[in-house]
């Protein structure tokens, strides 16, 4: 329900027309969702496209395009608390955010990326290309997912298939790039990684001159095959509500039809965007509409009524700002302050094995799960201390792959505690980016989904990166990286004889995790227990006798102080003492 405001109805109407005219496939997919959700989808699509148009307008120099994008983003954040905008697309977007309680701060990074793109993009390898594409697409897809959640139709993504979901988005991006190849080349852009183009010698020069050649044909064949593989993911919709599942499967079918059109376009691919035949689209969409109508009739969504948004609006949209203000961490109960340490001597990454929860409880005659409850309080204390001292990365060994062998009651208590901590979100008002490292297959689906949502919701924060290792094992991590390398070698994308350390690191589950500078273990044990073996290869080790629940931020400061007094040589000769 849009309401009776003529300006608002006109704004949503404009978003609908732009979606239908500029992206008929996307418009057809939006038609598969209930009518009450469609205006919000039009607004999100139109906003993303409006930003892209500002960034791609080659009638203006790059600096001016970047300034226009920045002005659009700034205006959006200024208008969110008011619930209105003189720009019709932003007017529809701020109304969508207020009505559906969307937190548009999650889009800030993707929007700023459009501004950065005005300076041009160049990708040396697939890893850099994937990071760029996912950083741009994931936040917008996340907003649509939240939209379904607010409508009472939660889209339960299976996080054991998380790589499949992200590869699907890679396929969306690659299909889009191949479709727009003619327009991009006309502007001097080639949004493909060097790693891919080099696999077909001569293709780079031919594309630069917009020449169709055997090398270009081979490259297009290779890339359409790769995109088809990415958008064809078995089990992607398993366990999902039939409504969103129909949208996703139809999207995959339309993408494959688009790839067929790209593959058969030949030299025309360099002159105009190829499109599937209307008959092909109808063959996909007609049965999809029938399936979607049946699915939504069985589970009607909840659509919020139109609501005015104004100053003081308590919705997330009203609180959004370009740079969010975070409160400082609460002070230490005893008033202790971090020691003065030279910033250039601080470790960038501290990893902690939090040992001693069970023993702490047993010493007090309590069940072991009470020790884990006390340990959760220690986690909060140490995170506060990390923020106070300016630490950039803190990684905690929360639940290992071996912990499943414990008594089932203790395991259930640990998982329940983790669930409550994630729901409570004790760091919501702090500049903490939460990440999760580990496997999802054995975790309860609701816990895995909560972790993913919290990670997505904090991804734009720039303070402390807190990584929780849950169902994590070091050997498992290395095995997964080796399997990823083997798959690429089998596909002919990697020469096994040329694999180096950087190749291995890029295929780790968390390739952007920095090396650990300081590994700290509590509980009077002196072993690393299968924790981050790759990242701790050169870490300084620090062992302390205190059980984890007895730990507070002062122990972290002491560990970091000890680190600053060590001389790290990484295999070189020691520096002579003056």
Automatic annotation (TrEMBL):
Residues 299-346 are annotated as: Disordered. It is an enzyme of class 2 (transferase). It comes from Streptomyces chartreusis NRRL 3882. GO terms for cellular component: cytosol; plasma membrane. Its EC number is 2.5.1.-. Homodimer. The active site is at residues 355, 403. This is Isoprenyl transferase. GO terms for molecular function: ditrans,polycis-undecaprenyl-diphosphate synthase [(2E,6E)-farnesyl-diphosphate specific] activity; magnesium ion binding; manganese ion binding; Z-farnesyl diphosphate synthase activity.
């Amino acid at each position: 329900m849009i309401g009776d405001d003529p300006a608002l109805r006109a704004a949503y109407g404009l978003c609908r027309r732009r979606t239908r005219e500029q992206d008929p496939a996307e418009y057809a997919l939006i038609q598969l969702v209930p009518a009450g959700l469609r205006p919000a989808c039009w607004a999100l699509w139109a906003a993303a496209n409006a930003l892209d148009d500002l960034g791609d307008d080659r009638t203006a120099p790059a600096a001016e395009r970047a300034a226009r994008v920045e002005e659009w983003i700034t205006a959006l954040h200024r208008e969110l608390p008011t619930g209105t905008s003189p720009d019709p697309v932003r007017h529809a977007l701020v109304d969508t955010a207020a009505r559906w309680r969307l937190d548009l701060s999650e889009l800030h990074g993707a929007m700023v990326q459009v501004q950065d793109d005005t300076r041009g993009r160049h990708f040396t390898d697939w890893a850099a290309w994937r990071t760029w594409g996912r950083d741009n697409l994931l936040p917008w897809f996340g907003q649509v997912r939240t939209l379904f959640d607010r409508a009472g139709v939660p889209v339960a993504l299976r996080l054991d298939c998380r790589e499949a979901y992200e590869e699907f988005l890679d396929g969306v991006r690659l299909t889009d790039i191949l479709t727009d190849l003619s327009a991009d080349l006309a502007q001097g852009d080639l949004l493909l990684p060097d790693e891919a183009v080099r696999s077909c010698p001569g293709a780079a020069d031919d594309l630069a001159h917009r020449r169709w050649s055997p090398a270009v044909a081979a490259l297009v064949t290779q890339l359409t095959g790769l995109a088809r593989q990415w958008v064809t993911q078995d089990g992607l919709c398993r366990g999902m509500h039939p409504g969103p599942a129909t949208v996703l499967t139809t999207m995959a079918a339309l993408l494959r039809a688009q790839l067929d059109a790209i593959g058969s376009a030949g030299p025309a691919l360099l002159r105009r965007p190829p499109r599937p035949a209307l008959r092909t689209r109808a063959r996909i969409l007609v049965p999809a509409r029938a399936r979607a109508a049946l699915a939504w009739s069985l589970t009607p969504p909840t659509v919020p009524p139109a609501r005015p948004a104004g100053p003081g609006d308590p919705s997330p949209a009203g609180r959004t700002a370009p740079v969010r203000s975070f409160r400082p961490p609460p002070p230490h109960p005893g008033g202790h302050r971090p020691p003065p340490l030279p910033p250039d001597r601080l470790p960038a990454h501290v990893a902690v094995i939090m040992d001693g929860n069970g023993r702490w409880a047993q010493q007090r005659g309590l069940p072991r799960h009470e020790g884990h409850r006390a340990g959760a309080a220690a986690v909060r204390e140490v995170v506060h201390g990390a923020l106070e001292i300016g630490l950039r990365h803190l990684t905690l060994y929360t639940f290992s792959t071996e912990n499943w062998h414990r008594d089932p009651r203790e395991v259930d208590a640990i998982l329940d505690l983790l669930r409550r901590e994630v729901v409570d979100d004790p760091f919501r008002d702090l500049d903490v980016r939460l990440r999760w490292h580990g496997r999802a297959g054995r975790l309860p689906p609701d816990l895995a989904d909560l972790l993913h949502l919290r990670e997505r919701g904090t991804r734009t924060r720039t303070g402390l990166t807190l990584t929780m290792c849950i169902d994590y094992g070091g050997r498992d991590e290395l095995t997964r990286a080796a399997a990823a390398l083997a798959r690429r070698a089998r596909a002919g994308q990697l020469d096994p004889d040329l694999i180096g350390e950087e190749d291995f690191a890029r295929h780790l589950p968390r390739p952007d995790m920095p090396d650990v500078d300081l590994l700290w273990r509590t509980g009077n044990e002196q072993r690393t227990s299968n924790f981050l073996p790759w990242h701790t290869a050169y870490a300084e080790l620090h062992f302390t006798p205190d059980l984890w629940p007895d730990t507070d931020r002062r122990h972290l400061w002491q560990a970091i102080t000890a680190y600053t007094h060590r001389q790290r040589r990484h295999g070189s000769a020691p520096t002579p003492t003056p």
